[in-house]
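Annual report, structural modelling task.

Input specification for the histidyl-adenosine monophosphate complex:
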Amino acid sequence: MKYKTLKGLQDILPPDISVWQHIESTAKNIFKNYGYQEIRLPLMESTDVFIRSIGETSDIVEKEMYTFQDKGKRSVTLRPEGTASFVRAYVEHHIYNDPAPQKFYYMGPMFRYERPQAFRYRQFYQIGVEAMGIDDPKLDAEIISMLSSILGSIGLEGLNFEVTSIGCASCRPDYKTALKKHLSGKLDEFCSDCRRRYDANPLRILDCKVPSCIESRKGAPPVLDFLCKECKDHFDGLRKYLELLKVPHTINPSLVRGLDYYTKTAFEVSSENLGSQSAVAAGGRYDGMVREFGGPPTPGIGFAIGMERIIPLIKDSADGNKGPDLFFCLLTEEAAEKALILAEQLRAGGMRVEMNHEQTSLRSQMRKANRMGAAHVIVLGEDELKSGEIAIKYMTDGKTKRSSLQADEIQKIIKN
Ligand code: HAM
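The model returned the following structure:
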């Protein structure tokens, strides 16, 4: 085969696509109840959009962006995530003037040049949400509860919800100082990236995936111990409201996020069944980003679900791969013309109908109906056209029911 998908990319084919559609429609229904509206954002942005928000020293910006020069010699980047693009749009269209909270969701592909492995792709899909303009931790609890409800409604079980607070611009400097002090004596145990991060952004050392760095940073002080009063009150509020809403969760003081824009609340949902790529969804607050993009100070919070991580967990339970309600086996050209009309009438009535299109024996047509998973079969030939009577065969038990050649009677029988 001459052409293949690029490494880390994949085609999504039937029957998988029905699982994807099931997840998307479940999420959309829940978003409607919580007042989220869809927003569609470009797949590409000016590279600065991501550098300014995700952070120059993050893995994404340092190593994983698909960045190139367009024909106008501008540096553009395929979006590695949705929040930065969203905030760019939020500021560009002055959405902050609408009554808060402004709530949005998006679904679509993201691009990160990571080393592909199970559940980790270079093009992957997220369902993301962003809620703007409110810093009350009740909104944080509501959004985590909504995430729990989406994942529960698509049939995911045994997930671990971890939450923490990673402080804000006023308490973080103290934390950075304490962290640097803790790490200073053993810097040579860390990788060269981490040694560079020590000065540029020591918090990133907590997110390094190199095994020796993970080992060496054990015992580092948790940011939770350094929260200022405002962040501490906010986090206490979040915990109280999560209890009130009965969202099962654990506090993980060493939870770190790979994006620099987070403030206060950060959370991650993981599954034990995904090996090392265990995060199925993650999010948090980013109260400084709108201002960073030139808008008025506006708090924001959101999350994104990784589609490729949840699909394998629910594949077995999804019921999307059903065959047609009815398949027409056809013995003559006149019968095929009659079936063509009947099929259109039945589809207009909401039934899924297929008909045979090849000149093959009745036996092979029946075999085809079986392989497609048809629930019912009607054989149409000269006799049926002459008498105006047909037999509807039930493929589950082989029994038949008689009907006239009228679409409404066929539909009534099958739907009963
Ligand atoms: P993130 O943690 O970078 O957050 O990604 C969210 C989710 O996307 C991850 O938990 C994971 O399920 C999925 N994901 C990430 N990278 C890959 C990959 N290479 N292959 C497959 N799945 C992947 C964000 O992107 C933030 N924008 C979330 C957010 C929204 N925070 C606030 N608002």
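The pocket of histidyl-adenosine monophosphate is lined by residues 81-83, 112, 114, 120-121, 124, 126, 128, 130, 258, 279-284, 302-304, 306, 308-309 (CB under 6 Å).
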